[in-house]
Amino acid sequence: MGDSGPVWDVVVVGAGPAGASAARAAASEGRRVLLLEKAELPRYKTCGGGIIGPSRDALPPGFELPLRDRVHAVTFSLNGRMTRTRRSRHMLFGLINRSEFDAALVETAKAAGAEVRTGVTVSRVEQHGPAVPDRRTVAVVLGDGSTVLARAVVGADGSAGRIGAHVGVKLQQVDLGLEAEIPVPATVAEDWAGRVQIDWGPIPGSYGWVFPKGDTLTVGVISARGEGAATKRYLEDFIARLGLAGFEPSISSGHLTRCRADDSPLSRGRVLVCGDAAGLLEPWTREGISFALRSGRLAGEWAVRIAEAQDAVDARRQALNYAFAIKAGLGVEMGVGRRMLAVFERRPGLIHAAVTGFRPAWRAFARITRGSTTLAEIVRTHPVARRVLAGVDRD
Predict the structure, then answer these.
(1) Is the pTM value of this prediction over 0.90?
(2) What is the distance between the alpha carbons of residues 96 and 45, in angstroms, rounded to a whole number?
(3) Which letter, b or e, does each residue of 299-319 get, where b requires 16 or more Cβ atoms within 10 Å of its Cβ?
């Protein structure tokens, strides 16, 4: 099977925000860390590229965000109607290109001491069998048949990756996102500078967005999988309504986002999953960058403890501690997001009316995007929000 070489403390599969965060966290503790990525960096990634407060707060100290724009205004519309713009004196969130952002995060992992190998595909992981020299070791089998050995493995290879399949990740919600990168003339770009648009869409649970990034607008829509034709039509209609149909997209792409079920495993033996590979993202907005950064850091920290575990019982204890840390924070946020999605699917007009016409709702939106509160905290502390979700729970 080829020379496997030394045994790494932690091998991380996937160099997106989750994987780079995991590799940096583990390497920062002085461990031998290998980060594997199938693409060459930088690489394009279908993503709106919004960096909200929780994402910013989860970044490495001193990390300089490669911001393409700073958002101070949001235009809301209800399937193209009832358009209203709300503005804020303070920045709401920032916009990045994922290729630049991800590459910069990988550099922080390298700076912490992680070794990075790109252009490497992983075909499977094995925790038993001839490729595994002892019970404290995981074999990562690469596409060329060679093997890398590790004391712990972190899967951050996306929602359709090999590591999630190995762990047995179970999904509750799968959505289809379609996106176009549209270069526009300076006069159009100026009109969008510092302002995004969010359109509550015609398909239950769907919405669209316009995120300006200098001379390019990122325009996308997302809705439940199984509505492919309707989702494509929604994107075309949305672009036409915006007056952008005459501009040729430089990139048109699509991807599936996948949310984990509550009982989905986050580990198997000495293998952990985080970010999209674990199905960790906010179910209503499908925001995943902050979930990737936070879960990646936790996965890196707990992978170090698993690497140090002398037997299967101790490794299992550390993996359960990792799962508890994820569920106590991100899991709670996902639960509230799932209930908000149920409200939104039935009453998008209610959400639109609240955020455009009810000042406390707009302030809550602004505070969530800035990171000074969370959706879960607002539901916990505000009686009106609690009553809205309680109505969903009763239905």
Answers:
(1) yes
(2) 11
(3) bbbbbbbbbbbeeeeebbebb
